[in-house]
Amino acid sequence: MNRTLEHILPRVQKPARYTGGEYGAVVKDRRQVDIRYALCFPDTYEIGMSNLGLRILYGVMNAMDGVWCERVFAPWGDMEAELRREGVLLYGLESGDAIADFDLIGFSLGYEMAYSNVLNMLDLAGLPVRSADRPGPGPIVVAGGTCAFNPEPLAPFVDLFALGEGEDVSVEIIELCRRAKEEGWSKPEFLAAAARIPGVYVPALYQVDYAPDGTVAAITPREGAPRTVAKRIVQDFDSSYFPVQTIVPSTEIVHDRVMLELFRGCIRGCRFCQAGYAYRPVRARDPERLIRQGIEACRRSGYQEMTLSSLSTSDYRPLERLCDGLLDWCEPNRVSLSLPSLRADNFSMGLMERLQHVRKSGLTFAPEAGTQRLRDAINKNVTEEEILRSCRTAFSGGWSSVKLYFMLGLPTETDEDVLGIADLAEKVFQAWKETTPNPRRGVTITVSTACFVPKPHTAFQWEPQVSMEEYQRRVKLLRDHMRGRSIKYNWHDPETSFLEAVFSRGDRRLAGVLETAWRAGARLDAWTEYFDFGRWMDAFAACGLDPAFYAGRPRDPAELLPWSVTSAGVSTPFLLRERERAYQAVITPDCRKRCTGCGADKLYPGGKCDA
Amino acid sequence: MHRLAFSKSDTAKYISHLDLMRTLQRAFLRAGLAIRHTEGFNPHAFVSIPLPLSVGFSSACEVLECELLGNPDLGAVPARMNAVLPAGIAVSRCYEAVRPVKELCYVNYIVTLDYENGAPFGAETAIRDLLARDSLVVAKKSKKARSGQVEVDLIPLIRRASVEERRDSITLDLILRAQNPGLNPELVVGAVRRDCPEASPDFVCVHRRAVLDDQLQPWE
């Protein structure tokens, strides 16, 4: 290990985050590889190592001959200070080599509040943050992940964005990079060629003009760049790569367990949910294959916990068969199985009994809204009766803690809807009183609210976010109506939600705000220890931009949206139809009942949706 | 009861005690070695490390106690474990525990004091004199004491100490009491910083070389 690093590490918190050397980390011989890839996650090690996508891409890229993919995470503040003081450049965990010398630097973008970390990590790597200031030679900066569906706020910093699932496109980008290296292409030559790879968006090849009112007037592609860039998906998800052999961190991470991915996409069509639209079409993995992968992943990692991951696990058709098959192995081997993202409408007694075999943890439901009218408007197809029935099932089975998640500020929300949350919590409490086998143990009902953030590529992409003052008024209204000691109410502060709303639907001009805030010290903004709202407001003022223009302004459907070059495969007429139905509080049945014709099955010739 | 002798070096130095226990438990599972678990609602593996090592220290003589089930070939255990351990952890031996842990009386540490501009003149002598005092009382953090610290005299806990100057460093070869109470070599370095400020090192490297019984013979 590097001697300077040895001097630094005793002075920082949790030094094991910065050393690499974990079981399963891929170490290759520098002389045997021609492409070095830095897979960067713009948050801490504990968060990044919990990301399944990162592990998949790590495995896919390291399976390529001559390619060495290494991990890089955002250092915590103490480590950053030491790196800067000692002049150590950001390095790949596997080799300890500075990533400034790598061929490609790829960022996974899952959260707008991590954008400042992207800039900070480029700077820690010793690279200029703006693409235009990196003329090449030098690493190409790539970004992907859900946030790449609106790449604009990061457009001046990133050389190319890869939209959608990264398994195939990452390989194609690497192969192009290898060719460019062999043939000595310039960076502009490489980027022009990369723009021809399906799913790749090269922001420098698009000229954006603004109208006097601040909206986007025109987006003009140059040098043959496509007018629309549609996301990539893995067509044959069932047999696509799954990391049964993966890194086992030597220090605790957030999701420290085997993550088994059941399916991609979601049949539900909740109108606020970006993941629900962006990960279409539905593609499932065969249960027998999942059982084999789950067992193998436990054996090879030594993990004693497994979680079934997807956007809505109880919608996996053969879920009970899968659970039985896994539990046959898990129980005698002391491996516990957990099922997140269960829906309140089909939470069954049978499923609960299977889970009881392992461990009884808290239950979480996300009704999202307090009244049936509003749940219909957002297409959260779950009724109060279903929620209460699921709670009764759980309470009679001995559960004594339930968490209920809601959003405030959803389109069309009224005070009646807000108060409906308090009513629902009270009804859940009554349900507990009626069904619990042990009333003396008490119950904890935790109600949490967050401020709704309208997202690109959803039916609500044209909607304004409520102001922070209005959100707080609704919080107070709800707080004043929450009764009973068994009901606990938590609410998220609206400041981060406000910034999320700004950046999730922002345009290229926000890059200036991002850079200004970062130069003023913004980093690790997802962490309350570091987040400083005032710093962001100062940055908006310095750049002459009004954040409310982005967060709180209703968009006309005729407006050219900043992210309109990108396509998630879901058609705009479909989204507009869904928006109209929201206003009428009319539900759209789930995709299993009837195909909604969203268009995601048409991403490829012969494509299909396995709803 | 079985014991595993292992070393901890390089990147593995930064794995904390609790993380190390978790890491070794997972390694047993990867190696296909069953170990005894506690009974109860949330069973956990029955493993212990008699002398936890501070984060950042390297060691050639760590010991893990556990109970391997199913009579595995103990001679094959090191290879099976080493195939599935993180970098920097290497098992050298697996054997039936014979001697009680209470006979582990001393630990031999090699403490290297690094000086960026070379060891200061007189530092070696100053440290040697310091450790040759009749009494050397320092404050030590304590969770029990109300004030948060207690006073400890280091001298009775130092069985043997030799000080040797090299070009850019001074090496302390220390044999310290292991337990009841034990002495962490960081307290010795702290005393050097306090009483011989001119000999304060820029960087300290601690290596645990051997664990010993009361006759200063290797304990295993």
What does this structure look like?
The complex is a heterodimer of chains A (611) and B (220). By secondary structure, chain A is of the alpha/beta class. Chain A is 34% helix and 14% strand. Chain A is built from 20 helices and 19 strands. In chain A, the strands form 6 sheets. Chain A has a 6-stranded mixed β-sheet with strand order 2-1-3-4-5-6, with helices on one face. Chain B is of the alpha+beta class. Chain B has 2 domains: 2-98, Pseudouridine synthase I, catalytic domain, N-terminal subdomain (Alpha-Beta Plaits), CATH 3.30.70.580; 104-212, Alpha-Beta Plaits (2-Layer Sandwich), CATH 3.30.70. Chain B has 4 helices and 9 strands, in the order βαβαββαββββαβ. In chain B, the strands form 2 sheets. A 7-stranded mixed β-sheet of chain B has the order 3-1-2-9-4-8-7. In chain B, strands 5-6 form a two-stranded antiparallel sheet. In chain B, strand 7 (158-165) and strand 8 form a beta hairpin. Chain B is elongated and about 60 Å long. The relative contact order of chain B is 0.20. The mean pLDDT of chain B is 94. Chains A and B meet through helix 9 of A and helix 1 of B.
Care to give the gist of this entry?
The complex is a heterodimer of chains A (611) and B (220). Chain A contains 20 helices and 19 strands.
What is the CATH architecture annotation of the domain at 3-230 in chain A? 3-Layer(aba) Sandwich
| Number of separate helices of chain B | 4
Strand and helix order of chain B: EHEHEEHEEEEHE
The CATH topology of the largest domain in chain B corresponds to Alpha-Beta Plaits
Q: Largest beta sheet of chain A, briefly?
A: 6 strands, mixed
Query: Can you give the mean pLDDT of chain A?
Result: 94
> Which descriptor suits the 3D outline of chain B?
elongated
Strand order of the largest sheet of chain A: 2-1-3-4-5-6
- Spans of chain A of 5+ residues with little confidence (pLDDT < 50)? none
